Amino acid sequence: SKEVFDWFKEQDWNLLEAPKRQVLVSPEDFCSSGLNLNFLCLGPKQIILDKGEKATVKFLQEECGCDCITMDFSSAFEFGGAFNCWTVDLTRE
After folding, report:
1. Which distant-in-sequence residues (6+ apart) come within 8 Å of 23 by Cβ?
2. H/E/C letters for each residue in 4-68?
3. Stated pTM of the model
4. pLDDT tens for each residue of 12-68
């Protein structure tokens, strides 16, 4: 909502508009339209995401200065989620 965006701006957050999702693996793919943003952060500015989301990779590299590691993860999309969802219980030390 506009109120939410305004609140973030008041807190000095830099809001960026991310690209739309590009990869749909089948008509039964009911994953979120924002699945391209379901990536896994390995460390500061170090991200792993689906290699088919070329616009998102380019955006993260050029606009955000991220080091992107890409892999084909599209076979999991029909089951829901991507890298972050599939590794949510991962503990890093």
Report:
1. 35, 36, 50, 52, 53, 74, 77
2. HHHHHHHCCCCCCCCCCCCCCCCCCCCCCCCHHHCCEEEECCEEEEECCCHHHHHHHHHCCCCEE
3. 0.75
4. 998 888 898 887 766 666 667 777 888 888 899 999 999 989 999 999 999 999 999
Q: Is 83 strand, coil or helix?
A: helix
Closest Cα partner for 52 from 27, 85, 17, 76? 76
Whose CA is closest to 15, among 32, 2, 27, 31? 2
The enclosing H or E element of 71 equals: strand 67-71
